[in-house]
Amino acid sequence: MCGIVGYVGHRQALDVVLGGLRRMEYRGYDSAGVAVLDGAGSLTVERKAGRLANLESALDTTGRDAFTGTAGMGHTRWATHGAPVDRNSHPHRDSSDRVAVVHNGIIENFAALRAELEAAGVELTSDTDTETTAHLIARAFDEGDTKGDLAASVRTVCRRLEGAFTLVVTHADQPDLIVAARRSSPLVVGVGEGETFVASDVAAFIEHTREAVELGQDQLVVIDRDGYVVTDFDGEPAQGKPFTVDWDLSAAEKGGHEYFMLKEIEEQPDALANTLRGHFESGRIVLDEQRIADQDLRDVDKVFVVACGSAYHSGLVAKYAIEHWCRLPVEVELASEFRYRDPVLDRDTLVVAVSQSGETADTLEAVRHARTQKARVLAVCNTNGAQIPRESDAVLYTHAGPEIGVASTKAFLAQIAANYLVGLALAQARGTKYPDEVAREFSELEAMPAAVHKVLSTVEQVRDLGRRMADSKAVLFLGRHVGFPVALEGALKLKELAYMHAEGFAAGELKHGPIALIEEGLPVVVVMPSPKGRAVLHAKLVSNISEIQARGARTIVIAEEGDDTVRPFADELVEVPAVPTLLQPLVSTVPLQVLAAEIARTRGYDVDKPRNLAKSVTVE
Ligand code: F6R
């Protein structure tokens, strides 16, 4: 939550910072702001509530010429402390307007810091936790051992802060450098020719450089146009971890699509292929990083998948495969509940933490809790070097590429594929599958990009259906077996994008309550199992459909090609390719993503930036 960017170099900082913010708006869009320092140490700030477009209009009114300078910073906000109004927007300044700060995260002891500042006569002008840091840094810069040294001043203040934060700080008296610091919130450095960047995400500077450096926990970096220097919060020299970003600017742009989500839906075959690539070598499943001994993997006797939202649904799908392949009990748990209920964990428990961003606060805390209980943690993550993989014992990266639409699409499919690889790795380690069986399962997975590509031919049919469903008040989703989590995911997509009441149910539960919701014309989306692969469940779902149809529901059926039995019960039929049962979610989810996006678009909503949401949920 919140996107931040900082720049020191040879270009106009305002242009670089605004370019970065445009690609990080997915992290929050309650307000946006910029600060630019000119070489003479004059600090110019503009900030506006609402989307980045509001800030850009304000800059046009003020005149962009006022923002001349080659060092600057910017922020796009998801509000935590204080309403999304101009005065709570970042950057925040100290009383003398010499320090500017942007912040991502929550400073948990801000009330005490605020009281201390007020007692010292400082007048605070916002309701935010962030503003306290601007005043504290300014005071540290003016006195004692840290006098005149911005990096030392920021370190002193960071040592006093509790909570999660990334801070980017400038001081008018040191206009050639920017200081940034992080604890449990993301921060990467971009290293260019004669210019250096800091940002929450490499997307902010990918247009200028692909050379990046990831910072560790409680580290601080000073950037200037010649490079960067990293220390810990005590000022001891420290090392960042350099890496080269393996995608380019086009991946972070719409590329002619009306919105990112549609582009990302269409990128799903590539996301799957890239996630699988390189993970089956010399007849064995291989993870990206493995700091768990093979013997410990063999000894695993219980698996927990912990995650939030769509990532949680990917775990629900994986449970069917992992239990089937590995003969291990698998519990799938919302990360926000996990550590509050004293789960039974020990060194033979494997906790699989699934997160696109790798920075979701609840999932990160679940990882930490699991590790204190001696469980092994394996991260499935889409973001290189994010906090969750850093704190895990093993990592499998999903190579879905940057996902800019707030609603997860290609990352979700890639998570399912990666979770399956985890299942196969476990089956291989435990010997519950012979090598040729593992090879066969992997080759079935390898056929999925083509199958998903085929589903994309239904996009226009589903968009048309979405336009016709846009007036509905509510939609129900039904599924069984692996189709149940798909129903949950379809409902989540519709809620978050179209702000429509939507519920997913296990179809077998219908008669235990939900059938009372059925009324004339209510759209019910049914995810059918294969008539061949799951004949018994298929027959039961056909009965369920006929029951709800008899009560007036309008049935929208996602079924395997050639499934003629279900056809008479489908008011609308969307056909997906026949694939092995466990892999069916990879094809049946796609029409539900398109449906939600098109209903949202028809209702006039911003598909990529649904209200109240942000892509990375870094606060609990
Ligand atoms: C829904 C969605 C969210 C995320 C959830 C977890 O479309 O995107 O439910 O799946 O916030 O995020 P990550 O995977 O970053 O931990």
TrEMBL record:
Compartment list: Cytoplasm
Keywords on record: Aminotransferase, Cytoplasm, Glutamine amidotransferase, Repeat, Transferase
Domain Glutamine amidotransferase type-2 stretches: 2-226
Active-site residues, record numbering mapped to chain: 2 (nucleophile), 615 (for fru-6p isomerization activity)
Transport recorded as keyword: no
Catalytic activity: D-fructose 6-phosphate + L-glutamine = D-glucosamine 6-phosphate + L-glutamate
GO molecular function list: glutamine-fructose-6-phosphate transaminase (isomerizing) activity
Uppermost EC category: transferase
Cross-referenced PROSITE patterns: GATASE_TYPE_2 (PS51278), SIS (PS51464)
Superkingdom per UniProt: Bacteria
InterPro entries, A to Z: GATase_2_dom, GFAT, GFAT_N, GlmS/AgaS_SIS, GlmS/FrlB_SIS, Ntn_hydrolases_N, SIS_dom, SIS_dom_sf
Domain spans labelled SIS: 293-432, 465-610
Enzyme Commission number(s) of this protein: 2.6.1.16
Pfam families found in the cross-reference section: GATase_6, SIS
Function description: Catalyzes the first step in hexosamine metabolism, converting fructose-6P into glucosamine-6P using glutamine as a nitrogen source.
Subunit structure: Homodimer.
Name used for this protein in its record: Glutamine--fructose-6-phosphate aminotransferase [isomerizing]
